[in-house]
Amino acid sequence: AAPVRLGSVVQLGAVVQLGSVVRLGEVIPAPERVEPDPDADHLLTADAVIRVSADPAALAVGEQLAALLRPATGYPLPVTDVVGQPPAGGIALQLTDEADLGAEGYRLDVTRDGVRLRARTAAGLHHGVQTLRQLLPAAIESRTPVAERWVLPGGSILDRPRYPHRGAMLDVARHFFGVADVLRVIDHLARYKLNRLHLHLTDDQGWRIAIDSWPRLAAVGGATEVGGGPGGHYTQADYRRIVAYAAARHITVIPEIDLPGHTNAALVAHPELAPPGTTPSPYAGTEIGFSYVDPTSERTYDFVADVLGELAALTPGPWLHIGGDEAFKVPAEVYTRFVERVQRIVTGLGKTVIGWHQIAPAAHTDGRILQWWGTRPDDPTTADAVRRGAKLILSPANHAYLDMKYAPDTPIGHDWAAHIDVHQAYDWDPATHLTDVPADAVLGVEAPLWTESVTTRTEIEFMLFPRLPAIAELAWSPQSPQPHPSAQSDRAAQSDRAAQSDRAAHDWSDFRQRLAGHAPRWTAAGIAFHRSPDLPWP
Ligand code: TNX
To answer: Going by CA atoms, what residue is nearest to atom 9 of ligand 1?
Structure first.
């Protein structure tokens, strides 16, 4: 179909082109398999209906799709659960039992007559909805009605994630960010099919979660932040709201209580937890490694059990992150015994342990996951923990740390690990990154945003965009083209070869084009982003 040009509108200070049809393959992260059919473009019309399988979680995805599309289109887009009907115009979201789609995959078919999205789970439908959204013109991101032809490109997509763990971390301890900011970050994760939000809730500069049995932690420990600002904390109701909002977007919250180091804020609230002879005072600087809870005091383990107990009860996800990084003042033997005891507390609560890779020397415990943030791929201690059963989340600081500057002149951020522009964020392979670690030990990828120098929502977005989508593509899209799921027969194998060019592979030159193409979407959504010189901006 020839692009229909309706002119352009000036929106949020940028020019948004109207009327051009998105290519089916322009999606981020790249779908596993894309088969365009240029004769099958679908025009979404004002009378379109969203039909959903009669299932509460699927219906919730249908309602979210409607909520995403209504503002810009101005269409009513009613959501119904009329079962068994083929899509007669409009969009159908169907739960199916097609085993090849896995726990999060989906199949999308766009024809002249309608749009059909199929998945085995509501999570799969949710990811498919994110794809659908990216296939509409960029103006779909506008929160007010836009005159546009809402055309979806014809063809089929089969898509499944490479890794089950696709995450980002927000440090709300160095600077506190309120619930609204966190919900907006969750929206950004959902857009790019990430499914984990790790919240770094405690550090030297602030304690950000109310603990009923130790109220001074938040009341006193939460009243500080880097630079001397007022800080803040989440009530348990706030935290539940974040968890529920994330869950509705098929994102699991992983809360972190950093132990035994990075605990100055807790010690200010409870000096009895500090090592004998030390007098904690509020800290608004950015040094690390000076604080720790007293590992020789039983009171410390009461504190840990109470805090993790309340957090476990508030957290439906299976993981508790116990930190473990940079406890420089605790002797190695003492540190290892401390971590092992905290691991037992976590498993006793029915949760699975995640810790920064410094916890590697501790004994293995069921399901234990290490979050590796090194910069040098040769790490025998981590490799040994993997041999003893640990799995890994990869956050290499020189590729995945969103607090690193893009370049020397980036106004905020660090540079101790690297300058990370988009190519550097994209240019590594999680499966082969670490020496002596087999590919199947890697559960996925996570991009942490530390916030010593990040103080506002705009600054969060400036550091996330455009690097977060690069990490999301590493976590979701195949490294090399995947064989057709039904390529058993010769015939399927042949047609598979014919369709070779439509199967995704990790490819910088293709990615940078697609990524730059998302800029009008970010502008329409009011997202502040960095105009990286790595990308061919439109
Ligand atoms: C190291 S990475 C830290 C954080 C800092 C970060 C700054 C890790 C587990 N610990 O405490 O915020 O560097 O880049």
So the answer is: 325
What pTM, to 2 d.p., does this model score?
Answer: 0.94
- CATH 3.30.379.10 domain locations along the chain: 8-160
What is residue 91's three-state secondary structure? Answer: strand
Contacts 24+ apart (CB under 8 A), 269-275: 269/207, 269/214, 269/216, 269/217, 269/219, 269/220, 269/221, 270/214, 270/216, 270/217, 270/303, 272/297, 272/299, 273/297, 273/299, 273/300, 273/303
Going from the C-alpha of 433 to that of each of 107, 357, 378, 437, the distances in angstroms are: 31, 15, 9, 8
Q: What is the pLDDT of residue 479?
A: 95
Contacts of 104 (CB under 8 A, 6+ apart): 119, 121, 123, 124, 127, 160, 161, 164, 195, 250
Architecture of domain 165-476: Alpha-Beta Barrel (3.20)
> Can you tell me the distance from the alpha carbon of 99 to that of 115, in angstroms, rounded to the nearest whole number?
21
Nearest-angstrom CA–CA distance, 402 and 384: 28
Quote the pLDDT of residue 498.
46
CB-CB contact of 24 with 152 (8 Å): no
Residues of the chain with pLDDT under 70: 1-19, 83-88, 484-501
Q: pLDDT digits over 20-30, tens only?
A: 799 999 999 99
Query: 397: CA distance to ligand 1 center in Å?
Result: 9
- Residue 373 Cα, ligand 1 centroid: separation in angstroms? 9
**Atom 12 in ligand 1: which residue has the minimum CA distance?**
450
| Right CATH for 8-160 from 3.30.379.10, 3.40.50.140, 3.65.10.10, 2.60.40.10 | 3.30.379.10
Contacts of 387 (CB under 8 A, 6+ apart): none
- The interface predicted TM-score of the complex, written ipTM, equals 0.97
Is 144 exposed, middle or buried (CB count within 10 Å of its CB: 0-12, 13-18, 19+)? exposed
pLDDT value for 368: 98
How do beta strands 196-200 and 202-203 pair?
unpaired
What pLDDT score does 12 carry?
38
By most ligand atoms within 8 Å of CB, the mutation choice from 288, 382, 453 for ligand 1 is 288
Among the listed residues 329, 243, 229, the one whose alpha carbon sits nearest the alpha carbon of residue 287:
329
* Three-state secondary-structure class, residue 167: strand
Burial of 420 (0-12, 13-18, 19+ CB in 10 A): buried
Q: Decide if 333 is catalytic.
A: no
Rounded distance between C-alpha atoms, residue 397 and residue 374, angstroms? 6
| CATH 3.20.20.80-classified regions of the chain | 165-476
| Residue 82 confidence (pLDDT) | 74
Which residue is catalytic, options 26, 63, 326, 340? 326
